[in-house]
Amino acid sequence: MTKADLSPGIVAGRLDGDTLAAGFADLHPALTAHEASVAADRCYFCHDAPCTTACPTTIDIALFIREIAAGSPLAAARTILDQNILGGMCARVCPTETLCEEVCVRQAAEGKPVEIGRLQRFATDAQMATGRQPYSRAAATGKRVAVVGAGPAGLACAHRLAMHGHEVTLHDARIKPGGLNEYGIAAYKTVDDFAQAEIDWLLSIGGIRLEIGQRLGGGLTLAALQSDFDAVFLGLGLGGVNALRAEGEDLGGVRDAIDFIADLRQAEDLANLPVGRNVVVIGGGMTAIDAGVQSKLLGAETVTIVYRRGREAMSASTWEQELATARGVTIRHWAQPVRVIGTSLENGGAAREVEFEYTRTGSDGLEGTGETFRLAADQVFKAIGQTLDGAPGGLALEGGKIKVDGQGRTSLAQVWAGGDCATGGDDLTVTAVAQGRDAAESIHQSLTEG
Ligand SMILES: Cc1cc2nc3c(=O)[nH]c(=O)nc-3n(C[C@H](O)[C@H](O)[C@H](O)COP(=O)(O)OP(=O)(O)OC[C@H]3O[C@@H](n4cnc5c(N)ncnc54)[C@H](O)[C@@H]3O)c2cc1C
Ligand code: SF4
After folding, report:
1. pTM attached to this predicted model
2. pLDDT computed for residue 182 by the predictor
3. pLDDT tier, 1 (very low <50, low <70, confident <90, very high otherwise)
4. Which of 54, 98, 373, 439 has the most crowded CB, counting CB atoms within 10 A?
5. Is 213 close to ligand 1, i.e. is its CB under 6 Å away?
6. Which atom of ligand 2 is the closest one to the Cα of 116?
């Protein structure tokens, strides 16, 4: 690896193209047919398999692995996609270490699970390589459904509705569909523009009209959708971000991690993407880890993630935390930001340091200890959680999300919701897919009963 350019400030091109390409290469490269066969042979094909119970989309994992072992990857793909139409993306991004692979009996017995995620990728890649999907539309029902948000929840909902013969219009505010598959997930988890390839493949079922650049709350209103369509599904995600509420938050170099990640995912050439020499990331979730790791891979000299509670309270899995530390990111716990210190406005008003206060658990919850320390920082990323932004009025909310029942029904008649914007999930791609799919089944039932 070549030595990074250590210029102070936020600069592009800290590493050469080859080093960048190596750093951002596929995190879990595809298995060869031989490797897949060896991996599949480790499966016990358990009855009442715990891996299936742990999967939010309830994929019959033992069955699809058996199909791979039998040399039928396309049959395996069908088993996966029947439950999870974004099985290709989920194979790349699911935290399998806390879901199916965590409970795999091989994990319990030997500390090494069957590689379910990579086997799922093997099967779904085989299906994608055919250029076809194994589904076609049922006879047209004449019913029209508006889906708002073309992230995993909206895409899964739209596809299932199209399968049932309904006509779907899929609206999204951004210029590309995919939601966080396109603008959020770490670049090394989804290489080669996989998100868009998967969407093209998914939409090829037909019956889904994609309307991009259409924001609900802008030109588009829920009332209009309710009157123009037979049903509405909202898969808006969490578009807002929490503020740091620390002095100096407005200094140059301080920004939302999610925006940096979106820029990175859309960059044509990573060598043109500026990054700080000393980067500080504030937060403890997947966004913090992804901002930290990717800053390091862009050539930042030091990257420190600072989280206000202990390691076990971080929402990023242990595996994700270890990925970060293995890439040279330092994670510090039990500290909260007090202020960002920067140059004077006449000298550019740019961040230079962040002051933190140590924290501890007191009788009333988390409290500062009064003891402080500082970290050098020319770039500061805020990754302290996303919030629901722009939900239409009139919808009942709970805990800051759109309140839904077990079928995804909101408090408004003929309006469903799912994914990160709705209650009942856990802010994972696979859960968003499950909620979108299940809401589509509920919508279908509502449109066809009686
Ligand atoms: C940085 C980051 C990394 C992550 N990494 C992982 C990971 O590795 N594995 C994992 O399982 N999960 C990960 N997640 C979580 C995962 O991406 C989300 O749980 C998932 O994308 C939620 O899907 P969704 O469809 O509900 O919302 P989103 O993916 O957010 O999609 C919502 C869509 O709605 C659109 N929209 C929003 N408001 C409007 C409006 N008013 N009008 C029209 N359209 C609108 C948006 O443009 C967007 O396309 C990560 C999240 C982040 C932020
Ligand atoms: S728990 Fe492990 S061994 Fe059992 S079916 Fe699932 S993947 Fe196979």
Report:
1. 0.96
2. 97
3. low
4. 439
5. no
6. 7
